[in-house]
Automatic annotation (TrEMBL):
Protein species of origin: Chryseobacterium fistulae
Membrane-crossing segments per the record: 12-29, 35-59
Protein name: Band 7 domain-containing protein
Annotated localization: Membrane
Top-level taxon of the source organism: Bacteria
Cited Pfam families: Band_7 (PF01145)
Cellular component GO terms held in the UniProt record: membrane
Keywords: Membrane, Transmembrane, Transmembrane helix
Length: 288
């Protein structure tokens, strides 16, 4: 469990160290000329100044020191400034600043077994200095390895898109913020034992693997073409139906079933064709 300490200010101790150092010089100079006791006092003042000086520490903003006394955790200092601690304490520096982890692009299989490439950027910082220092070995390496594992697990948990899984509620391509939140939650759970706080996690690269990218692109294009054609046909049928109803309601022309079939065929060609239709003038009748 992390214990946050607030040690005493180190400015008074710094002044005392300077005074003791000056006194050591003074007694040493006078001791050489007069007597040995002055030399002993000089050495004592010098060692005391060095001893107290060892207890001084400077903590920069967004940094901390983890204090240890002969193998026992004492506490963590998170305030910045000049402080004085027990000179017998050993201290370990630790940064509390936010850091970016740009993970390498991973090649994994999605939920449907398709090989994909995925990469993420993660913003993290140390929240619990005790866990980061003593619960794991090299917390930066721990963050890197667990982040890679979380991204891999995310990739295999969802399909790339809904081409093969039409009933998928979440896909990697269309999930957006929801996928990022799921990644953040999993990272927080994995990195909690190391006292790491996840501030943000986002997918930065997502694509089919090179060996199937061409085939999947053709499949996506074919799906888009079919969807577009379906809309065109639906619209054309509605327009033909409207045209026949208007002609019938306004008594513009009476059409039998054969003429209606011919008109429907011509309208469907005009409305659904990719190129502009070329009209052909019929100077006779439909039956000749």
């Amino acid at each position: 469990m992390e214990k946050v300490l607030k040690p005493m200010s180190g400015y008074l101790t710094l002044v005392i160290c300077l005074v003791l150092f000056i006194l050591s010089i003074y007694f040493f100079v006078n001791g050489v000329e007069q007597s040995i006791p002055f030399v002993i006092v000089s050495l004592l003042c010098f060692f005391l100044s060095c001893f107290f000086l060892k207890g001084l520490m400077i903590i920069q903003p967004n940094h901390s020191r983890i204090l240890n006394f002969f193998g026992k955790y004492v506490g963590s200092v998170k305030e910045n400034g000049l402080f004085f601690i027990n000179p017998l304490y050993t201290s370990q520096k630790m940064s509390l600043r936010s850091e970016n982890l740009q993970g390498q692009t991973l090649k994994v299989n999605d939920k449907m077994g398709n090989p994909i490439e995925i990469g993420a950027v993660i913003v993290w910082k140390v929240g619990d200095t005790y866990k980061a220092a003593y619960e794991v070995e090299k917390y930066t390496e721990y963050v890197k390895m667990q982040s890679e594992a979380a991204v891999r697990h995310l990739a295999v948990s969802f399909p790339y898109d809904n081409l093969e899984d039409e009933h998928a509620d979440i896909t990697l391509r269309d999930g957006g913020e929801q996928v990022n939140k799921i990644l953040e939650q999993e990272l927080s759970e994995r990195l909690a034992p190391a006292g790491i706080v996840i501030q943000e996690a986002r997918i930065t690269h997502l694509a089919y693997a090179s060996e199937i990218a061409g085939a999947m692109l053709q499949r996506q294009q074919a799906t888009a073409i079919v969807a577009a054609r379906t809309k065109i046909v639906e619209g054309a049928v509605g327009m033909v139906d409207l045209a026949l109803k208007k002609l019938s309601e306004n008594n513009i022309v009476e059409l039998d079933d054969e003429r209606k079939a011919a008109m429907v065929s011509n309208l469907m060609v005009v409305l659904c064709g990719e190129k502009a239709a070329t009209p052909i003038l019929n100077t006779g009748t439909l039956y000749n």
